[in-house]
């Protein structure tokens, strides 16, 4: 074999190695700083998200913006991450009467909830949300551990991303609402 052919093969291998290292570096950067995945555990977000579904969440969005009412967010706590919906924003007063949500004494329509889930919500509050905190709930209100009953108000820096896309099971591929 000629030295030109050997050099060509070595260069080809070196190019492949560089391409693989760059691809892995880009993937790690995206996973660390921009997108990550999370598995939905439990039934607290039914019917929007099902137990065992895997979602991609956007880690960058809240570096440039703040969570909005209705966003499905990933909350990082020391031993577990939670997937919940933002309901109350800093400075607002939240109250639930007979399953109806009131924000600053105005009834708020929760289009993402079933009638049954609304009726099983119970009463809560009123509670005024301090600065840098959010009030979150699961869509399956009867069984959700959330700001009403265990998670408490969520600090802004505990919200690590916004759920964007259901990626597993493959038959459920869609944007989260």
Summarize it.
The protein has 177 residues and is of the alpha+beta class.
- The Cα radius of gyration reads 22 Å
| Name of the CATH homologous superfamily | Umud Fragment, subunit A
CA-based shape:
elongated
The proportion of strand residues reads 25-35%
Question: Order of SSEs, N→C?
Answer: HEEHEEEEEHEEEEE
Biggest sheet statistics: 8 strands, antiparallel
Structural class based on helices, strands and sheet pairing:
alpha+beta
Average the pLDDT over all residues and give the rounded result.
Answer: 83
How many domains would you count in the coordinates?
1
Annotated CATH architecture: Ribbon
CATH top level class name: Mainly Beta
From the 3D structure, determine the CATH topology.
Answer: Umud Fragment, subunit A
Number of strands: 12
Primary descriptors:
177 residues; Umud Fragment, subunit A; four-stranded antiparallel sheet; alpha+beta; 34% strand; eight-stranded antiparallel sheet; 23% helix
Question: What does the model show?
Answer:
The protein is α+β, with helices and mostly antiparallel strands and 177 residues long. The chain has one domain: Umud Fragment, subunit A (Ribbon), CATH 2.10.109. The protein is 23% helix and 34% strand. It is built from 3 helices and 12 strands. The protein has helices at 3-34, 61-64, 115-119; strands spanning 35-39, 54-58, 72-77, 80-88, 93-97, 100-103, 106-108, 124-128, 133-137, 154-155, 159-168, 174-175. The chain is elongated, with a radius of gyration of 22 Å.
